[in-house]
Design a protein that fits this description.
Layout: E1 3-7, H1 10-36, H2 43-64, H3 68-71, E2 81-86, E3 109-114, H4 117-121, E4 131-136, H5 137-175, E5 177-178, H6 181-194, E6 200-203, E7 211-213, E8 216-219, H7 228-243, H8 246-257, H9 264-289, H10 292-306, E9 321-322, H11 327-339, H12 350-366, E10 370-375, H13 380-383, H14 385-392, E11 397-403, E12 406-412, E13 420-426, E14 429-431, E15 438-441, E16 446-453, E17 456-463, E18 470-475, E19 478-480, H15 484-501, H16 505-526, H17 531-544, H18 549-560, H19 565-575, H20 583-593, H21 599-609, H22 620-628, H23 633-646, H24 650-659, H25 667-679, H26 686-694, H27 699-712, H28 717-728, H29 733-744, H30 751-761, H31 766-774
Helix pairs in contact: 1-2, 1-5, 2-9, 6-7, 7-9, 7-10, 8-9, 9-10, 10-11, 16-17, 16-18, 17-19, 18-20, 19-21, 20-22, 21-23, 23-24, 23-25, 25-27, 26-28, 27-28, 27-29, 28-29, 28-30, 29-31
């Protein structure tokens, strides 16, 4: 398998990281000190300050990513100067450019790096002068590797928390039951008072504490036994989280902690932000319930439940917001609620918020940048990062291209056993149009190539000289003259470098097309053994060539043979740029997409293709096959929504999407597709839509889908009858009532239809039936 590594220079990466840590330390330390001095007593101001400290470093360092040459670096006349001093025992060597990447062969050279300060002082800057830090290259590399390892570990942990949130949402869909009538009424009243969008309210067994998810509130079973004031305080607290958008802030704060995993103040900032969020939500709950005692009693119940040794659910809430997560924090909150029962905080005026924002921006601009100057380390041969990479990954094929401080390395296994190919292009190196020799070498450039084939190892090293390139050619480790045989070998080795690396694919494809047309380019693509190179050349084939039908068929066969799902999707993307794709070509592309194993890659391409490949008699079957082949309900939902919103013709695309939903397990994803279809305003087939609705296990999702259909267009008698049939299959009286009330407000005045409506209400609870019957009053004015 091929590894593609295309990175910024070591110094630039280290400079970014050091600047980021420096800025974060300054901001976090400042807020910590101000809070310790007692100047952040208002929890609203404290939360604002800690968020600024946690996220500010990302903003300030982003300003430092502006190109140095234009923003902060000295002018070209003031660039660092390399003074080369030959070692006593070495022969005189040409001056080596200081930007030569590590791994190039050097003589013993001592470098002194300095700025011409007179010219640098005259260069305009965009902010404070950057701090220049000379650091050994081995220390930079090891430090970056340690930081990257810790960052990856914490990122995996945070992603596990995200997966926990998805599992919790699945439990909400499959195991959650609607809350009682009193809780629903209290929720509706608080939603109106607090001006919050109504969330989904569900009761879930096994919880020890109420939880808030994006757009949903989960309650434990025992919450239904609380009195009215306690329920009001509990729901007001959870709605306050939604009003403050805490379900969004929590994952952002934990993701911001990932690159600062080693920083104690960053951990402290996240803990303080989560504590302050609870304090402000407690205050909102007290405002609605009238007294802190009611919320304190709810917290005490949470604490008692969490301490129950027979309770099996002790796992953390992860990204969900639990009303009571830390037992120590609960005790402090209960004490505060009992001692300060009113718990009122003044509102921060907008003008003060804007003033603070302006001051924050000025503070970020004032932070200094950091520019790391890499110098040879004490163990350059042992700890050089390119050498370490070569030692760890012993690949038979290795192509390294370095230019202007950037490095691109491609490593792979050999196409045939016993063969090796290693090449390094360092600096300005260009090959001739025939790909048989080097045509140009800039100052300080190096070209090295070593190939083993047929049991013979050949190598060539070229550097610029006064009278042309200087060549060092060996066969089996023995120096040889660069004769006709060597030239013939090089003329075959250089094309191999192109084929392995995908180097200059656009320009090379253009040359091949000019030389031999589409057939020659297809023959060249057939010789490419690596997926990323084949995808790159196929992209140029579709963009530049004028092929006939047979050549297009051959190109599709080459695309089908690509093993990497990512590269196959990339090649399919390039095929979509061709104008006026014939129906048989559309079918061919869809059939190739069906061979992509990765649901993500396949869905990504289908989303791109939805607006470019119409749904017609020729392609409908392939569209359906590739859509139903997506095992992930999430990815299938993304693709189906794209087909509904972007597909043509609109009616046919929507019908195809609804028919392709068979086999989906997630009620939430299916309902999302149905809502997208209803929002389009096009004429939907009731049979297709209601067939999906009736397959939903969740009454909540069924209700949402039916209400969306009712609101999309005014239902006629036939559609209203179909909706009533779907309602009969719902077990929740509350959800039934919601659909019936929506239907009653829109359905036509038809005696038989009204009788069917009333038949559905029979068997419902008295409260829900009364509300549903009352919705029919519009047909009987006066």
């Amino acid at each position: 398998m091929i590894e593609w590594i295309e990175s910024l220079s070591l110094s630039a990466s280290a400079g970014w990281l050091i600047a980021f840590v420096l800025h974060a330390t300054v901001l976090l330390s400042a807020v910590w000190a101000i809070e310790r001095l007692g100047l952040l007593k208002h929890p609203g101001w404290a939360e604002w300050a800690w968020r600024f400290a946690l996220f500010g470093a990302f903003v300030s360092v982003s300003m430092e990513l502006t190109p140095w040459d234009a923003m902060r670096a000295p002018s070209i006349d003031a660039r660092p100067t390399a003074v080369s001093t030959p070692a006593p025992a070495a022969e005189a060597t040409p001056v080596v450019d200081r930007d030569v990447a590590y791994g190039s062969k050097r003589e013993d050279v001592a470098e002194v790096v300095a700025f011409d300060t007179r010219t640098a002082a005259a260069t305009p800057t965009a902010g404070p002068a950057p701090v220049a830090l000379p650091i050994a290259s081995d220390a930079l590399f090891l430090g970056l590797m340690l930081w990257l390892s810790g960052t990856v570990l914490l990122f995996v942990r945070v992603m596990c928390q995200a997966l926990g949130l998805l599992r919790l949402r699945r439990r909400l869909v499959h195991a959650g039951v609607p809350a009682g009538v009193e809780l629903q009424r209290t929720m509706q009243r608080l939603v109106q008072e607090m001006h919050v969008r109504a969330p989904t309210l569900r009761v879930l067994s096994g919880l020890t504490s109420p939880l808030v998810l994006p757009g949903a509130v989960l309650l434990p079973r025992w919450a239904e036994g609380l009195d009215a004031r306690q329920q009001c305080a509990m729901l007001a607290h959870e709605l306050a989280h939604l009003r403050r958008r805490d379900p969004l802030w929590r994952p952002l704060q934990r993701l911001a902690l990932v690159p600062l995993f080693f920083h104690p103040l960053a951990w402290h900032a996240v803990r303080r932000l989560e504590t302050l969020a609870e304090t402000l939500c407690d205050a909102a709950a007290v405002e609605r319930s009238g007294n802190g005692r009611h919320l304190a009693e709810c917290l005490a119940e949470c604490l008692a439940r969490s301490a129950d040794p027979y309770n099996t659910d002790h796992r953390g809430a992860g990204w969900a917001l639990a009303m009571a997560e830390r037992s120590g924090g609960i005790v402090d909150r209960v004490r505060t609620l009992l001692e300060n029962s009113q718990m009122k905080f003044s509102t921060i005026p907008k003008r003060w918020r804007w003033t603070a924002a302006v001051c924050a921006i000025l503070a970020l601009i004032a932070l200094p940048g950091v520019m790391v100057v890499s110098r040879p380390g004490v163990l350059p041969e042992l700890l050089d990062h390119h050498r370490l990479a070569d030692a760890v990954w012993q690949h038979a094929l290795s192509i390294t291209i370095r230019n202007n401080g950037d490095t691109m390395t491609i490593r792979s296994s050999a196409p045939a056993p016993g063969e090796t190919l290693r090449a390094t292009i360092d600096g300005d190196v260009a090959f001739n149009a025939e790909e048989s020799d080097v045509a140009r070498m800039g100052p300080g450039a190096v070209f090295e190539i070593e190939q083993r084939r047929g049991g013979v190892t050949r190598s060539l090293r070229m550097v610029p000289g006064k009278n042309g390139p200087v060549r060092e050619y060996t066969v089996g480790g023995i120096a040889r003259t660069f004769d006709a045989e060597a030239k013939a070998w090089l003329s075959t080795a250089i094309p191999d470098v192109y084929r392995v690396s995908g180097l200059q694919a656009e320009a090379r494809a253009k040359r091949i097309l000019a030389r031999g047309g589409a057939a020659a380019l297809l023959d060249e693509i057939g010789m490419l053994k690596h997926d990323f190179a084949r995808a790159a050349y196929l992209g140029q084939f579709f963009a530049q060539a004028q092929p006939d039908q047979a050549q297009m068929t051959k190109a599709y066969a080459l695309m089908r043979d690509i093993g990497s799902d990512f590269e196959k999707r990339r090649a399919l993307d390039t095929a979509l740029v061709r104008p006026r794709l014939e129906p048989e070509h559309q079918v061919a592309l869809l059939s190739i997409a069906a061979t992509i194993d990765s649901d993500f890659e396949c869905a990504e391409w289908l989303i791109e293709a939805a607006g470019k490949l119409p749904v017609n008699d020729a392609s409908a079957a392939e569209w359906s096959r590739v859509l139903r082949g997506l095992d992930s309900d999430f990815e299938r939902r993304r693709a189906l929504v794209a087909v509904i919103e972007d597909g043509t013709p609109r009616v046919g695309a929507a019908a195809l999407a609804l028919q392709s939903m068979q086999g989906m397990d997630s009620d939430f994803e299916q309902r999302s597709v149905l809502e997208a279809a209803s929002r389009t305003g096009i004429a939907l087939q009731d049979s297709d839509y209601l067939a999906v609705v009736e397959a939903l296990a969740s009454d909540f999702e069924r209700r949402e889908a039916l209400v969306a259909l009712i609101r999309s267009t005014t239902p006629d008698v036939a559609r209203s009858q179909g909706i009533l049939r779907s309602v009969r299959g719902m077990s929740s009286d509350f959800e039934r009532s919601e659909v019936l009330k929506a239907l009653a407000s829109a359905m036509p005045h038809d005696v038989a239809l009204i009788e069917d409506y009333r038949a559905v209400t029979r068997g419902m609870s008295d409260v829900e039936r009364a509300q549903s019957e009352k919705a029919l009053d519009r047909f009987y004015p006066g």
